[in-house]
Every structure is written in C-alpha cells, then in structure tokens.
Amino acid sequence: MRISLTGPESPDLMSSDPMSSDPMTSDPISSDLLSSDLYEESQYATRNMHSVWRDLRKSDGLQRQRTPDGQEFLAALRHADVFEVLNDPGTFSSAYSTMLTVRGDGDVAAGAAIHLTDPPLHPEIKRVFTPLMTAQAAQRLERGITDRMSELFDTIRGRESFDFCEAMITLPMTITGLLMGIPQEQWAVTGRATVRAMGGVNAAESERQRRIDLFEAHTTIMSVLGNVLEDAPPADSVSGRCPATAEVVGDPSRDVPLLNAYAFLMGANPTVPQTINQTLILLAGDEDLWSWFTRQEETDQRFVDEALRWASPVNHVLRRATADTVVAGTEVPAGSLVSAWIASANRDEEVFADPFRFVPDRAPNRHLAFGLGVHRCIGQHVAAIGMKIFFDLWRKNVRSVALDGDPKHLISNFLNGVVCLPLAVDWK
C-alpha cells in the first residue's frame, strides 16, 4: 500500500493495495508466464487480468485473438483505441452482440433491444425511456431510494460477520426495482438471477452444469418480466414504457417489449452492486483510505467516478465492423468482431496518472465505465445517485470494516463480478 497526503484540506489520497484475494483490482504483477488469451472465462475468477491487459497495451495495434470454437476477434485495449471503436457506431455496430460469449447468428435481441441497435433506430428507442433517466428525474428518485436502501441496511445492522453479496442481494433493486416496475416480492429472486445470468459462480461446477444454471437464470428473469408486462405496469416505469418499443422497432415476430425490459434490467442490476463490491474490498483493506472516507461529510461525484474507473464492472463490449477500416494501424475487415476492453482502457497509463492507485478525488477522470457516445449508459444518472446514497449510508452506519475471508469472483469474461464478499463489520 502506498499513500500520499499532500494537505489536510484536500488530500491527494492514492491507494494501490495489492491484495491477492482480489485478482481483478490489485496492483499488476508480471504476466510474463501468463497466457494472453482474453476469452478463457475461468481465469477471470482467479487471475489479475490487469497485468495481462497492461502487457498487451504495450504491443502495437489491436490484438488478434481466437475463441475456443475457432472464432477470430480483435481486441482493443488502449484507451484511445477503445474510444475510437465505441465512438463510431456507423463503423462498429452494436446490432449483433455486445458479449464475446454470444456469437453465431448474434444475440436473439439484436436489432430490437436498446443496446443492440444502431442509429437511426437506437435514438428512437432511447427517446421512449429518456424522460425516466434524466439527471432531474434521477434526483426525484433520491428520497425513495434512500428510504428503501435504509430499510435494507436495517436487516443487516448488528451482524458482525456476513457475506455482503448474499445479505444485500436486493441492493440493486432498491435503486431500480420500482423504476423497472417490478413488485418488491420479486426483488430477491430477480437480483440473484441477474448475477447468475452473467456467468458461473462455482468453479467446481462442470461446464454442462454452468450452462444449465445460466439457462435457468435467464428463464427466471424472462418469467418475472413477462408477468410484469402482462400486469399493466405503471406508465412512469421502464416496463410501462416498453410496449411503445414494439411500434418503434416494427418487428411483430419478436416480443420487443420483453427484450427491452430484459436489456434494462441486465444493464442496471449487475453494474451498480459490482462497483460497490469492488470499492468495499478496497475500503476494507486500506486503513488510510477508510480514514479519509469516514472524514467526508458526503460522497461527491469524483469518488463515484473513481469507484467506477477502479471497478470497471463491465470488462468488455463487443462490436462488429460494418466496413473495412483501420484502427491503431491494424486492418479491420468488414464483418470482423472487435472487443473493446473498457476495464483495460480505465487503467491506461497514457490517460490516467498512477492508474493502479485509487485516487478518490481524481479529476479529470476520463473513465469509460458507462460507455461512450450514442451507447453511453442511459441510466448513468440513476446509477450514480444510487451509489452515492449507498456510500453515504455506509459511512453513517459503519465504524469499521474488514475482510472476513477471501472474496470470490464471477466466472465471466464480460462482468467483473464478486459473488461472495465476507465482511467483518463494526456498526455505529
């Protein structure tokens, strides 16, 4: 751990705690003996991938990769290259898939769900939901989110040792549950299913069992959302606005409202809690950072932005080239799959000073955790307010926190997820 305090009023606090129990957020180690295979999913639960990405950023151009079934893809790892790919939806299309694990004919929701469409269709779908997602709309949600999250805190208050992930399984739903129009009695099952739908949670499981679990998780989510849509959800909820997307897309062969409801839920539920999980791991292992954190009157946007940069809950997003082009000197033929590694870009030494240190008041902060351009996360304002409320409540209620075991990570090359986070907490 390395700390630099430059003044009592506005300390430049920097933390880089190389914790072996947290492979995805620790200070990088040499990866000379590590494979540069970016697809293989099990490694994301056990290895410090930041060391791999760091070494690959030193190589020229995009990196040529191959999936286990022989599908070739290109990997953009530098901030500038990721920026170029994500900022050009005309050349790099989202209307195929955003995850490396979904290939073949593409995602079943391609061309219909908000995140799997390109302009001019994408902004038309986005306009359906924009009134619910503005900064002003997010501020109107603040009181309700605070009340629901406070109630959740009350359920764990006084517990000295617990698995944070399990105890707070409904945490994302305190932010998005009512906004989505999902009944509270479905929050626990929905929260658990959204994590399991992103990857494996048990390294000892067979690949076959993992696929079964993923199928069951997706089926659970679709069932919950299908029931919500059938029950005429409130018009001022995401689910209540989803039926309007059917007319916008104009594809009667698919259940477009259900596909968009699913897209919103899967976009919102994993991102916020995983940013919180990764930040808590850091706060639990760094006394100086914890001391700084507890001295703040409230959580400001700079801390939230640094938490997002540090955690980078989405490792990559996938695009497909629509025309021959060149990125970083690498020829990209039309039809090529290009993975933009956001987590790598957010630790790029060319953009971030001391990228492997957590600087709570870092400014400017050009992180790409919410994406970029037309596909920048529509729910960013709601997510930011939700994280701010959580950290304020944590500061208000917790005197000290420490790890009570090793965190366990999701088996996924897409989501940088924590599935078990044992904490020892001293409550105020």
TrEMBL record:
Species this chain originates from: Kitasatospora misakiensis
UniProt keyword list: Heme, Iron, Metal-binding, Monooxygenase, Oxidoreductase
Membrane-crossing residue ranges in chain numbering: none
Pfam families: p450
Positions of the UniProt region annotated as Disordered: 1-32
InterPro entries: Cyt_P450, Cyt_P450_B, Cyt_P450_CS, Cyt_P450_sf
Family as reported in the entry's similarity comment: Belongs to the cytochrome P450 family.
Protein name: Cytochrome P450
Low complexity composition-biased segments: 8-32
Recorded superkingdom: Bacteria
PANTHER family tied to this protein: CYTOCHROME P450 YJIB-RELATED, P450, PUTATIVE (EUROFUNG)-RELATED
Lineage: Bacteria, Bacillati, Actinomycetota, Actinomycetes, Kitasatosporales
